[in-house]
Amino acid sequence: MKILTAKQLANADKVTLEKQDITSEELMERAATLVFNEIHNRLQGAPIPIKIFCGIGNNGGDGLVIARHLIQHGYHVTVFVVNYSDKRSDDFLANYDKLKEVTRDWPQLIKKTDDFPEINTGDFVIDAMFGIGLNRPIKGWLADLVELINKSQAFILAIDMPSGLFSDKIPGNDAAVIKANFTLSFQAPKLVFFLPETMDYVGDLQILDIGLDREFLSNIQSKVYLVGQEEALSLYKPRKANSHKGDYGHALIVGGSYGKIGSVLLTATSALKTGSGLCSLYIPKCGYHALQTGLPEAMVLTDEGEELLSSFPADFTSDVVCFGMGAGTANETVEALRELLENTNSPMVIDADGLNILSKNRDLLNLLPKNSVLTPHPGELKRLIGDWADDFDKLEKVRDFSRKYGLTIVVKGAHSFTIDREETYINNSGNPGMATAGSGDVLSGVIASLIGQGYEPVSAAVLGVFLHGSAGDIAASKIGYESVLAGDIAKNIGKAIRDLFQEPVHDSEKN
Ligand SMILES: NC(=O)C1=CN([C@@H]2O[C@H](COP(=O)(O)OP(=O)(O)OC[C@H]3O[C@@H](n4cnc5c(N)ncnc54)[C@H](O)[C@@H]3O)[C@@H](O)[C@H]2O)[C@@H](O)CC1
Ligand SMILES: Nc1ncnc2c1ncn2[C@@H]1O[C@H](COP(=O)(O)OP(=O)(O)O)[C@@H](O)[C@H]1O
Ligand SMILES: [K+]
User: Fold this and answer.
1) Domains of the chain as residue ranges with CATH
2) I want to staple 408 with a disulfide (CB 3.0 to 4.6 A). Which of 79, 324, 385, 420 is the partner?
3) Is the CB of residue 53 below 6 angstroms from any atom belonging to ligand 1?
4) ipTM value
């Protein structure tokens, strides 16, 4: 699914009005009615107090339409007009008039702190103050109102966007932002819904298709995509009945050191679980017995070093090399990576200590085969590209780095971002249970396996990140977040692949 900017959405809006020959008021009615339907489906007429905070632009207009439908269906609604300006939009005004037709309870104007209502824990608050039209941070008494709503512990539903979030920049430390429990957003997800600095304001997310012009949307240029089941499925290559293990790639996994041999076991297990035809491991001697016993399906080659990697088997060929997990950053191991890079043209996946070695020995970056995949977590990324001012700056810096060295970078996190030159793919699977030792090792095994099986490295990264998150979701659904171990993620990769073909999960269950 494409992620669109406020400007692109405004253009889509304009084209839709022309092509469908409808007024903007009709489009607002359509969009807000869809929101009403979602609320009605969930509340089923429950007599809970609903407090709707409407701005004076079109986000507020949406709030008024929602209020009208809720009142007509017998809900207990109080409407507040948050009157931060007297420049009310035309569609707001039209719906203000329509509201009068269904209730005698006049909307209450809020113009200053004294006008704030009481908000109780059991209230259902609808935030329709600002949407994509926000053009400066929320300050002053408006910020106090946002704080009051946030502190109320009421359930907060944000319309289109939590008020205070911009679609294209970070609001800043001292700006007020609604912290929603649920966001119903129109037509396309906005980038800020997925960034570490802003994702917590969104709560659960559901995108409502409000019927903007299909042709315009499909032709619109966006280089940022949200990757869910549908996008992952489109990348998947089915196995042929008439095939053999030679068709599914030979993955070589290079890593480990004394006390960190388990990381290689996790990577290798996940590579085989993702379907590699053959998997070889290159490790220091101390890990030999553990790996041969722990994963009899893998072949094990040992380095001369007892406890550290110090070289690379020069005449070894494989379809992909995965380097770094548990390897440490000793000088011998730096030289082993140098030797590996000088002697291989296979595409590579570099993770963990492999990344730390690259950060400290930047000349090695130029030796990496083009289109190799790097999988840093935020700490490793900072060592690799330096610090960033905010998440937008981070994305720009990662794009520059990707372009400069011709690499695909997976920036791991709650929503992992795969960045390949100009393109950005945001993953929408996974859960906090995956914040556990070794889960990154499992991810590098999945990506390496897919590259070995013939996937383009960027497709392997995008599909691999999705499958890894989905396997984590399956594990968590069985045993709970706290108990998920990295090995459980590896174990469920097969089910994650099978689930690509299941009926799609509702958007609101994922964020
Ligand atoms: N195609 C679409 O995407 C549709 C959008 N609609 C709604 O329209 C919204 C956008 O409406 P608007 O463009 O009227 O903008 P908003 O309603 O988001 O904001 C209203 C106005 O507030 C002012 N403002 C901005 N920041 C402020 C601040 N910090 N303090 C005080 N005033 C500030 C600006 O002049 C802005 O135009 C969307 O978010 C959505 O809810 C829907 O009605 C239907 C269709
Ligand atoms: N809250 C979360 N939601 C979704 N995925 C997560 C979350 N926390 C961690 N993950 C995923 O788990 C993996 C953690 O990787 P990493 O930090 O390298 O772990 P390790 O170094 O222990 O292997 C990443 O793929 C990341 O995207
Ligand atoms: K809003």
Assistant:
1) 6-220 (3.40.50.10260), 232-237+247-503 (3.40.1190.20)
2) 420
3) no
4) 0.91
